[in-house]
Automatic annotation (TrEMBL):
The keyword Hydrolase applies. This is 6-phospho-beta-glucosidase. The active site is at 382 (nucleophile). One of its GO terms (molecular function) is beta-glucosidase activity. It comes from Peribacillus muralis.
Length: 484
């Protein structure tokens, strides 16, 4: 890692933060909003196994479980206070998502819910008031549950039309105010867990990878159609794809592990971006289908043309960790927890309290790999450390561990830029504490701003500035020159 004396990022670099509607807004059934898939996911470390069980049917069971995201951090009612705090930190950009079911409660209606649109209009205007660029994710793990239940999610081609209608409505309304967009959050996550991004569970065929590939194909076409609509609306609009990127290292120099990591790397990290950035299915596609025992998805006339003509403008990605792959002597290595993915523990890395392996240099490796492969601008739209924060006797939150994590990643991203990578911006995840996606907990915190709320929904909801708040403010004010 470089000797980091003075780092200056390019003028116009988009420093900011990121959230998602289903994890912070709360007001889950207010003002005409419909229930989303995220609203049916209970709190707890076993939430993913509950969702992955054969009986899961998208029902909310208040007697059995609790659902912290129903309240979120009440950003729906407190967004003005929150955005004022982002402005105080000097944010240049704020990434957030539009809850699909706030605009189309069931997803298959023709006419939108005006109250939902007007909420996002106010949110966008509030950002613009402070000179903060809104960066919008159209779909972040929150499709209307009706689409998952009745249509079996994205494996059904009808969703292309519903998503196109939803996107057209929000683009028509906001394109004049919003330049940066992303279609699907972490579209590749379905390789491991298709419930969130594809609305597929066991009862609708999640176990069969043919359905996942079909769902991806439908999402690719839908995303490309949205790129087309956006480009027709505004010449300088930027629409990105969005994926998890987590480098998958071979555990050792055994070629068998090297090859296994190459296969996994391309299945997890490259397949979706190969299609969305290059505009065509990669030459390894048939091999990939074989590996996952899947049939070729149904591709209609004209689909490939749509993909080819409407590629994305940039690659948005989340970066939290790396993984190691060991297929030769896996009994000698422990499994590692990860952001919707699997691998083994890397003995050279430390892990977060939730077992995510911290690897700042991996970010430089990832950025170089992505840039070398695609040569389109990158945007780090998520990064951060989920940790338990304590308020000390002076009422302060000294989250030096978070500062340390972010500092190392900023150094690494700067190094990658010096290597020649084009990076548009950096929006760390959960810039204000919010409900975790993998566990539904409040106690897994990422923010610069603490929210007084526990896992059981108790607390004043007051916002408190952490030590990292002041640190990040300096980072932005000096355009990255001051990291200490
Ligand atoms: C990403 C998601 O996978 O990771 C976010 O896009 C999520 O929605 C973030 O919150 C961190 O994961 P978690 O489980 O710690 O909230």
């Amino acid at each position: 890692m470089s000797d980091f004396k003075k780092t200056v990022f390019p003028a116009g670099f988009l420093w900011g933060g990121a959230t998602a509607a289903n994890q912070c807004e709360g007001a889950f059934d207010a003002d005409g909003k419909g229930i989303s898939v995220a609203d049916t996911m209970p709190r707890g470390k076993d939430r993913f196994s509950i969702i992955a069980s054969p009986d899961f049917d998208w029902e909310i069971d208040q007697n059995k479980y609790n659902y912290p995201n129903h309240l979120g951090i009440d950003h729906y009612h407190r967004f003005k206070e929150d955005i004022a705090l982002f402005a105080e930190m000097g944010f240049k950009a704020y990434r957030f998502s539009i809850a699909w079911s706030r605009i189309f409660p069931k997803g298959d209606e023709v006419e939108p819910n005006e109250t939902g649109l007007s909420f996002y209009e106010q949110l966008i205007d509030e950002c613009l008031k402070y000179g903060i660029e809104p960066v919008l994710t159209i779909s972040h793990y929150e499709m209307p549950v009706h689409l998952a239940k009745v249509y079996s999610g994205w494996k059904n081609r009808k969703l292309i039309g519903f998503f196109k209608n939803f996107s057209r409505v929000v683009l028509n309304r906001f394109a004049n105010k919003v330049r940066y967009w992303m279609t699907f959050n972490e579209i590749n996550s379905a390789m491991e867990f298709p419930a969130l991004s594809q609305g597929l569970v066991v009862s609708s065929g999640a176990q069969d990878y043919t359905n996942r590939f079909q769902a991806w194909h439908n999402q690719f076409v839908a995303s490309a159609l949205v790129v087309k609509i956006a480009h027709e609306l505004r010449g300088d609009i930027q629409v990105g794809c969005m994926q998890i990127y987590a480098p998958l290292y071979a555990f050792d120099s055994n070629p068998v592990n090297q090859f296994a990591s190459q296969l996994k790397q391309r299945a997890f990290n490259y397949f979706t971006s190969d299609v969305q950035v290059r505009g065509y299915y990669p030459s390894y596609f048939n091999q990939l289908l074989k590996e996952y025992n899947a049939k070729v998805p149904e591709i209609k006339d004209g689909d490939l043309e749509i993909l080819k003509n409407n590629t994305v403008d940039y690659i948005g990605f989340s970066y939290y960790m790396s993984m190691a792959i060991n297929v030769t002597n896996s009994e000698k290595s422990d499994p590692a927890s990860g952001n919707l993915m699997q691998g083994v523990k890397n003995p050279f890395l430390e892990s977060s309290e939730w077992g995510w392996q911290v690897d700042p240099l991996g970010l430089r490796i990832s950025m170089n790999d992505l840039w070398d492969r695609y040569q389109v601008p990158l945007f780090i739209v998520e990064n951060g450390l989920g940790a338990k924060d304590e308020i000390d006797d002076n009422g302060e939150i000294n989250d030096y561990y978070r500062i340390d994590y972010l500092k190392k990643h900023i150094i690494s991203m700067h190094d990658a830029m010096e290597d020649g990578v084009d990076l548009m911006g950096y929006t760390p995840w959960g810039c204000i504490d919010l409900v975790a996606a993998s566990t539904g907990e409040m106690s897994k915190r990422y923010g610069f701003i603490y929210v007084d709320l526990d896992d059981y929904g108790k607390g004043s909801l007051d916002r408190i500035k952490k030590k990292s708040f002041y640190w990040y403010k300096d980072v932005i004010a000096t355009n990255g020159a001051k990291l200490e």
